[in-house]
Every structure is written in C-alpha cells, then in structure tokens.
Amino acid sequence: MKLDTAFFDKLSRLRLSMGQRTSMNLTGNRKSMQKGTSMEFSDFREYMTGDDIRRIDWNAYGRLDRLYVKEYMEEKEAVISILLDTSASMDYGAKKKSDLACALAAALAYLGLNNMDRVFIYDMKNMHQPFMAGGGKRALPRLVEWLSQCTFDGTADIGAAVRQLPAKGTGITVIISDFLQEEFVQDDAEEAASAVTRLLRFLAYRRQKSVLLHVLAGEELAVNLAGTKNFIDMEEESTLRLTLDAASIRVYEKALGEFIGQFKHACAKNGAFYAVCSTEQDIYQLILQDLRMLYDV
After folding, report:
1. Are 28 and 78 in contact (CB under 8 A)?
2. What are the φ and ψ backbone dihedral angles of 235, each rounded to 5 degrees?
3. Alpha-carbon span 96 to 1, nearest angstrom
4. For 276, phi and psi rounded to 5 degrees?
C-alpha cells in the first residue's frame, strides 16, 4: 500500500503503551523511574545541601518548620524495536503480506517517532544494519525509504533474530511475521507452543513488552481453491501436488486454528500482545481499531 501523508496524519493522536516505566537515560516523553524536572509531581523529600532552592516547598516549611523539596517524574525516551520478517513467504498473496508488514512497521515506528521515542527496525535477514532514528517525525522520509528497499526472499530465523537484539533496557519489541517457520509449524503441537513460549520468555528476560503481529494473506485464512493443484514452497522451492476438496479444506482449517491458537495461548499466558493481521483488512481499521489495545490514547 502507499504510505502517504494522510496515512500518517491519522496516527498522530496515538501513542504506544509501554505497560511499564522506562529506565533509559535520554530525554523523551515517557515517564521514567528516575526523578527529574518534568511537570508531573512525584513526591517530597527533605532538603539536602546542593538542592535547587526553587524546588523548596515553602508551605511545607511553614507547617513543619523543616525544608522539603518537590520531586517530579523525569521524562525519558523509550526504545521501540521492530523486527520485520523479510523471508520469501511474506511476498505471498494477491494483496501481498510484505506490503501489509511494511505498513504496520511504518505505522508503529511513526508512533514512536511522533512521541520522541528511539526506533529501531530490523530486517530479520540482516540484523546488524537496522534502521535507527529518534528525535521526532523528521525521520519519517528515511523510514519510508528504508522500508521501500527491503527485499522479501530466502529464509529468516525468528528465534535467532530475537537473540541478536542488542540489550537496550526496558522497551517494546514488535515482531511482524507470518511465523511460517518450522519450529512454529510442526505436528507436535506442544513443541510448537514451547517454541513460542521460549521466544516470549527471552524477551521478558530482556525487559521487553512483546507484541506479535501475525500477518496472513486472505487466501491463507479462507481457502477457496478446488481441484488438483501444485503447491510451491516459496523458501525451499519444493513442490507438493494436492487435490483439494471439502474434507481436505476442513483439515487445513483445523490446523490453521491450532496454529493461531498456540500463539494466542502463549501470548496470553506470558503477558504479550497478539493479533492476526489479514491482508484483506482495511489498514486504517486494523491500526486504529483492531490494534487499539496497544495504545495509551
């Protein structure tokens, strides 16, 4: 889809919810665990030599005959890390999953930039050269240009990509993928669910709020093919010839439900946000309505 000015203007009133206070040491719009000089009052403490006398509460001195200073919550920037699956399977669909994935990455990155957060977008196939930006919306043209140059081919290892994330303190990590990877798609449902849980627990250990956006094509969510077809694995380039009828489609739909269910269950159990994002959905409804639980406002 086209990422134009109107698209971003509709996002300006939103802000990603941290779900916890940040501890970064850079100035921004998030409330930190540290004390500072923003306008949001935090607490009183006794005056100490060297304190700014302008922060003395003279009303408290009049009542208690002791000097107290006011403390305020210091505003800090958060770090938002967005991992984009650029494997070949993401380039599938009449409305390509890759286009929706880029639109979602752009939208969430813009929300961070608009709130003066520091944003990193990673191509999972090349984790060492992310898009990095901070300082507000002026980075938007670079963001759009970076996304336009992403190529969707080959394979990507989601677990390996997550483990390569540099430790940057408390923040938000967003994974945008179809999750069509062997460790998540296997006959042993328990093993597949364990793979998702390991991913989320690692991010929790890194003090990250996890957001998993499961991008699927409309054709994957609602199969309307019939007859004998050749199915080509876009990443392995292998071919499988199948005859599709009502019974085989029911088997597929059951497997798809279990596939999505394992992510829903693991995310709910580990306090992560999860959403299925269909290429058939209207992008504005998806971002402004279906993902509304991600925002403070």
Report:
1. yes
2. -100, -40
3. 9
4. -85, 130
- Domains in the chain, CATH or no CATH each: 5-11+78-294 (3.40.50.410), 27-76 (no CATH)
Q: What is the pTM of this model?
A: 0.77
Name 85's Cβ contacts closer than 8 Å, sequence gap at least 6: 101, 124, 156, 158, 175, 176, 177, 178, 179, 215
Length in residues, the chain: 297
Question: How far is residue 206's CA from residue 86's CA, in Å, rounded to a whole number?
Answer: 24
Please tell me what DSSP assigns to residue 22. B
Q: pLDDT tens digits for the chain (297 residues)?
A: 566 777 777 787 777 776 543 333 333 444 444 444 445 555 566 766 666 777 788 887 788 888 877 765 454 568 899 999 999 999 999 999 999 999 999 999 998 888 888 899 999 999 999 999 877 788 888 998 999 999 999 999 999 999 999 888 889 999 999 999 988 988 777 888 899 999 999 999 999 999 999 999 999 998 876 656 555 555 666 666 666 777 888 888 898 999 999 999 999 999 999 999 999 999 888 988 899 888 875
- Helix, strand, or coil here: 114? helix
Which tokens hold the place of 211?
A: 């957001």
Coil/strand/helix, residue 128: strand
Burial 85-98 (b: 16+ CB within 10 A, else e): bbbbbbbbbebbbb
Beta bridge partners of 210: 173
Distance CA 142, CA 131 (A): 9
d(C-alpha 273, C-alpha 251), whole Å:
28
How far apart, in whole angstroms, are the C-alpha atoms of residue 161 and residue 121? 12
Q: Which residue is associated with the tokens 């306090």?
A: 271
